[in-house]
Write a structure and sequence with these properties.
The chain is mainly β. Helix content is 9%, strand content 40%.
């Protein structure tokens, strides 16, 4: 009997030394993970406005949250400048974030990363580059039946090197110099060659009922990079223009590629002037042919809408890309 009792006690001790099981806390039921990604509804703002921007919150002791870049889907009529104005960024920031070499080739439906603002207050502010010496002229304001206002004109490059990404800004002021509206746009040509002029058109969607003064200036422009494949050996000739109906002016002529390379993505820019050399109308259009071989010639036809004034003279400019 004592031997049986001893065996029972040993068995009991071995059983008590088994694996310790620790209960695992379970997540409460009914709690769903929420997404931090906000749905962006694109809003087209084709111009800069004088509407105050929201104030930047004062830094607190709460942990710093890294801003999430916004994804914007390009809509019809968008330009890189309009998108930059809409999100209060520079075109350079958006180009760098998306690896954009040529802003001309943005596609409808393409997604762009809008980088978060630089809020590192410890770094000194980047100096604003001095705009190149560009001359704005031929200013003309044209009202439309829809209640919008166009500021038309052209800008010339008196320097010695070609300039790209030229932005023109127009400000409408009252008699006391108070700003009423502001807009900006790229020139209609991607590159302004030395001693050449390019037209621009700035749209005011909701212009003031009247304004006493205006200011139109070139605010930016950069030399073209060595990697750019812009092609300039194109010339128009045998130009003819005639009114067609009440508000249409038709231009037709020939385009010649006089260079040694084939050209593609050719863009035509037509400009009509009044007798005071003010811009009455302008239009940008792609050439119908996809590729224009070296030495080749092709016809073209363009219609301009003249809302006010009489056409005194006109010209058609052309630029393209070198076929690689």
């Amino acid at each position: 009997m004592p031997r049986l009792i001893h065996w029972f006690l040993v068995s009991l001790c071995l059983t008590g030394c088994g694996r310790l099981v620790t209960p695992v806390a379970q997540a409460p039921l009914g709690v769903k993970a929420t997404s931090l990604a906000a749905t962006i509804t694109p809003t087209l703002l084709p111009r800069a406005t004088s509407t105050p921007r929201p104030a930047t919150p004062i830094a607190t002791s709460t942990p710093t949250v890294t801003p999430t870049p916004i994804i914007y889907v390009i809509q019809a009529g968008d330009t890189l400048l309009n998108i930059a104005i809409q999100f209060d960024r520079t075109t350079e920031e958006i180009q760098a974030a998306n690896g954009i070499v040529d802003p001309r080739f943005l596609q409808i439906g393409q997604q762009l990363i809008i980088p978060p603002p630089d809020e590192d207050l410890e770094d000194p502010p980047t100096p604003t580059p001095t705009p190149p010496a560009l001359v704005v002229s031929a200013i003309n304001f044209q009202e439309t039946q829809q209640g919008t206002l166009w500021c038309l004109g052209e800008v010339s490059n008196p320097g010695s090197e070609p300039l790209a990404e030229v932005v023109i800004e127009a400000s409408l002021l009252d008699g006391a110099g108070v700003l009423l509206a502001r807009g900006a746009a790229y020139t209609q040509l991607d590159v302004i060659q030395p001693k050449q002029a390019a037209p621009f058109a700035i749209l005011f969607d909701s212009p003031p009922s009247s304004f006493a003064q205006y200011q139109v200036v070139a605010v930016s422009g950069v030399p073209i990079s060595d990697q750019a494949r812009y092609y300039f050996d194109l010339e128009t000739f045998d130009l003819h223009g005639s009114p067609e109906g009440l508000a249409t002016y038709r231009l037709n002529g020939q385009l010649r590629n006089w260079g040694s390379s084939d050209a593609e993505s050719i863009r035509l820019v037509a400009i009509a002037y009044d007798q005071d050399n003010r811009v009455l109308a302008q239009r940008q259009a792609e050439l119908a042919v996809t590729l224009l071989k070296a030495g080749a010639t092709t016809p073209f036809e363009l219609d301009l809408t003249i809302t006010k004034g009489i056409v005194d003279h006109y010209q058609v400019l052309a630029q393209g890309l070198k076929v690689q």
